[in-house]
Amino acid sequence: MLLDGDEPGKRMARELRSGLYTDAKNKILCINDFTGLENSEIEDLIPEKLFAEVVDRLERTPETPFADVVKAGEPLVGQVEDWAEKQGVTLPEGWKVEVAKRTKKLALTRGIGAFEEAAVAKWVKLFEAFANAG
Fold first, then answer.
1. How many structural domains comprise the chain?
2. 3-state DSSP call for residue 89?
3. Domain range spanning residue 14?
4. HSE (CB half, 13 Å, CA atoms) of 110?
5. Cα separations (Å) of 107 from 18, 33, 47, 64, 113?
6. Predicted local distance difference test score (pLDDT) of residue 133
7. Contact, 48 vs 72, CB < 8 A?
8. What percent of the chain has pLDDT over 70?
9. What is the DSSP string of 30-54?
10. How many CB atoms within 10 Å of residue 16?
11. What tens-digit pLDDT sequence spans the chain (134 residues)?
């Protein structure tokens, strides 16, 4: 199970490790271990530029595009929420799901060769962890 590295994700990991997964603690993975960021979420496995491109395609009206303010090395979801507030954008319910679907489609269209080695290395590390948790 892969959980976000924010407080709710950490709380759920503790609960699962002391309950249902007591005998399989290695099967509870935290996204922070793969992104290298504290309080990260699954979205932080996506390269910032690609994530920003998708957000800007969804929200075309702001004066300042998200791509102009996104910062590498910081969790993306909080950055989007801060940017939206400053731009007067109301993010729709489920906005992260829509970004995820569009990101997946765009990533598959571009292919693995379009991504920097650092991003691919994170994904490989994650899939290796899943395989080893067996």
1. 1
2. coil
3. 2-133
4. 12
5. 37, 23, 10, 24, 10
6. 87
7. yes
8. 100
9. ETHHHH--TT--GGGGS-HHHHHHH
10. 17
11. 999 999 999 999 999 999 999 999 989 999 999 999 999 999 999 999 999 999 999 998 899 999 999 999 999 999 999 999 999 999 999 999 999 999 999 999 999 999 999 999 999 999 999 999 87
Which residues, including other chains, have CB under 8 Å from residue 40's CB and lie 6 or more apart? 4, 5, 6, 31, 32, 75
Q: Which amino acid is at 23?
A: D
- Helix, strand, coil in percent for the chain, rounding step 5: 65, 5, 35
Hunting for tokens 């595009």 — which residue is that?
Answer: 65
Q: Is the pTM of this model over 0.85?
A: yes
Helix 48-58 with 95-110: angle, nearest 10 deg:
120
User: In the block, which residue shows the tokens 């920003």?
Assistant: 52
pLDDT, residue 134, reads 73
Q: Work out whether strand 2-3 and strand 29-30 pair parallel, antiparallel, or are unpaired.
A: parallel
pLDDT value at residue 77: 96
Q: Who contacts 6 (Cβ-Cβ below 8 Å, separation ≥6)?
A: 39, 40, 41
Q: Which is nearest to 99 in space by CA: 45, 60, 43? A: 43
